Amino acid sequence: MLRTIALIGLLSLVPGFALASQCPAERPTPLVPADAALCAALDRDIRRPGAFPLDVYQEKLGRYLGAFCHRNPVAGWRVDKMVRDTGPFTATLRNDKATGNYHGTHAPVIIWYSPEMFAWLKANRTQAHEGMAEAPVPDGALMIKEMFPAPAALCRDVDPLRLLPTSGAAVMVRDAKASHDGWFWGWFGWSDWKPDWPAGPGNGYPNMGFGQYCVNCHASAKANATFADLKNIKGEPGRPLVFLSQNAFTDRSAQAHDDLSAMLNHLRIVQESDDITLPGAPARESPAPEFTTFYGIPFPHPTADKVMRMPSQTYDVVWASANRREARQQFLTSDQCLGCHDAGSTGLHFDMTLPGPGGRFLNLSPYGTWSSSPMGLAGRDPVFFAQLTSETETFHPEAAELVQDTCLGCHGVMGERQFKIDERARGKGCSPFSRAAVAAVPWPAGHSGLEARHGALARDGVSCTTCHAMALSEAERSRVKAQPQNSCVEERQERLNPENTGFARTFTGSFLMGAMTEMKGPFENPKAKPMESALGMTPVQSPAIKSSEVCGSCHMVHLPVLDKGKVIGHTYEQTTYAEWAFSDFRTGQSPDGALPFGAGKSAETCQGCHMPSRDADGHPYRSKIASIQEYSNFPQAEHNLPPEDIDLPVRSGFASHVLVGLNSFLIKMAQQFPELMGIRTQDPMLTKKGVDPLLFTEKAIDHQAAERTAAIAFESIRMTESALETSVRVTNKAGHKFPSGVGFRRAFIAFKVLDAGGKTIWASGRTNALGVITDEAGAPVAGEVWWNGDCSARLDPLAHQPHREVITRQDQVQIYQELVSSPPLSGPAQCGIGSQPAGQLTTSFLSICSNVKDNRLLPRGYLARDERVKLAASLGAGPELADEAGPVQVGDDPDYREGGGDATLYRIALPEIDGKPAAVEATLFYQAMPPFYLQDRFCTSKSEDTKRLHFMAGRLNLAGSRSEGWKLRTVTTGAVTIAGGAQRQD
Fold first, then answer.
1. CA-derived radius of gyration, the chain
2. Beta strands 97-102 and 538-541: pairing type?
3. Among candidate residues 578, 809, 814, 800, the one with its CA nearest the CA of residue 712
4. What is the rounded average pLDDT for all residues in the chain?
5. Phi and psi torsions of 780, nearest 5°
6. What's the whole-number mean pLDDT along residues 719-728?
7. Which of 182, 432, 530, 892 has the fewest CB atoms in 10 Å of its CB?
8. What is the pLDDT of residue 467?
């Protein structure tokens, strides 16, 4: 159950002392029930964990155990024969000193068994019952696994009643009606323990609950998720298992008073080590002065005591219920998967890792990499929630329900889907899911259990039971569309994709879910029994899980165009999947078979870039894909499944779930404001043994920016008597447009002319400290500022930097971006392909009337329009997809015919240069949140979500990071000397 971290003993071993005098858990008098009335009053309740809210039940159980009510042989409780090891204890001699290392599955234990548990063992686990099917453990049965210092020899000869469990106790309470695995799990300590609700600082992993990670080992038991055996119990025949114990020279008296409960109990380490250190620079204590000067706001400046916090991640627990195989419960939170699919969760295995800096592990596990990615943070993204309130408060207040339901169908997908399932089951139809529902928590009392589950699922982001259960082929979609797990999906498809068919019908996160009893993965012959025991799900191989269509449903965003609350059309806000399908990177295959035009010259799926399965040298990662109790690679246990069911093979091509683009700003916010986002910053399984996950994610983004995004070079450098001319080429390495995704992302070229001393004497693409692009005088260039200083009025509504083939002035900048305009503020709206912008530039996703500009870099080998139309049709989409995925307002620039990059000519009259040119330099920067976008957030909502974003953005400290100055550096040429008046660089 509760697993200790390997190599955790660290006990100094000095010769010459007897073992009996060294037990630090020994107490002078027995620790037995002293309040019989209290124990009697609590006894019935502590056997029914599913009958109470977690805080209420934990308080009852805490009082019961704290009073040692379970140490009651008179009431029929039975106890083990002695303190026993759960794994080997080894000694290493170095520099005339011996050091001990404990390799147990727990700290040494003595287990107490309730009368019901003992009776069940007698009826089901004697030699006479060997090979026979076991009856279920009865509800109300308990096992209290008291834990003590390692090795067991320290305390073996002491009366168990005089031992204080210095490492706490692992608790199992049977309640088969409450969870699929049938147990309430947890850890209790006799000091510094408190219920998990209210959540404490650090948003730690819960000490107790249903669906705890303990099942990562207990699911390997042959039945009933327990390894318990009669021969351990006092008075029963047989002897417990024994392990190597090199304890001959153990001397605890020479030790400092180290708290072994903090070392030997895994969950206690989680609680104590969370969020102590932050990777990188800490947040500013007050907003940057330039930030408050530039960003006018229509509300008072938020202060730390007033800023709204997202609910704690501690509350995000939705486990597999006892009726798991009924389709009404489709979705589970990721904490139900981390026990097996996070590195280090057994405390003994460290698969799914690589050696990292400072003697710590790099966590490559699915949970470890996903949890700190933008996908894992999608349900807590402060930028998304500020965008949502702009939509509902200012852009489309008349359609607030539609907007919230539509947007949360991706960012809070599991909560939105489970809400629909439950509402339809209650006869309420397809009620809209709301922002308020995301905030629902189980404590304090006020939300029903159902509401709290919806909130927990929504906050868990784009999580495991979403992607791994999608119905990806047309045949499967036809088979499951009427099943309960797909309640209201057809209505969503009709609302968002009314003219589309086939795969295109699933755009905007409108995918269907497959059989709820299956979790799809890429590898053949997965070991099914542990997952079936733990979650009621069967892992199955599905080649389609590796297809780009897994990503395509959500990364094709087809939305209604709203005008004064009415739908006046539909448009594509995001076309990332189609951009890939139209490029040289297309595979030419889908789960339904071949697509027109076949594979491109550089065929690669989305997962190939965003879920790397090879190291920097191109070698496939090799690892087991889970961390469970195996038969052949674990300390021996009784009553476990045979090796063929639980021994895991090493897989080649194990993929990391980093799932990053270039949104480093979100990751920095999570690093510096975990309490506002309600998250923990250390991995709950590796804890201090692992590199902080958010730091790992930041470095993955930095690598993506530097190596996999783009290249930049000077095609030519020529200086005449009158002018300096240089051509800068940016090559797009991505398999889609760059930038791609949501339309407000942008990249720009910062071009400099330098003198011999390295001073900038002419520049296009200068920025200030906030990433605002300025001219030589420091004034924002056209299009950088959308609002006046107090947010009372918009400035020039369509001002922007057009696509440029030639740049001659310092207030001209090559910005690769998509800009769209809203319907006109008055009069009829003419929207759609080719319409003339008549409104104003907008960041509203549901106000996209006309395309103003789209010169984002096309991927290599982009198909011509007619070919794009044909391929779009094969996906079930109309010709408008081909048009909207094409470039807009790029003139006759030849670089936008087949794609792959763009060249910009800088032609600068020498009199315009403030000095003598000696070198040139070009750098490509990326902004996930350009200043105009943040300004539009702060000026279009007064919500608590907006105030939180303002608080975080104003105090965000980017010093020393690759994103310093609110711009992510991707690639640069460095300074290139102008030699002999002309130079060419290939």
1. 31
2. unpaired
3. 814
4. 92
5. -60, 140
6. 96
7. 892
8. 97
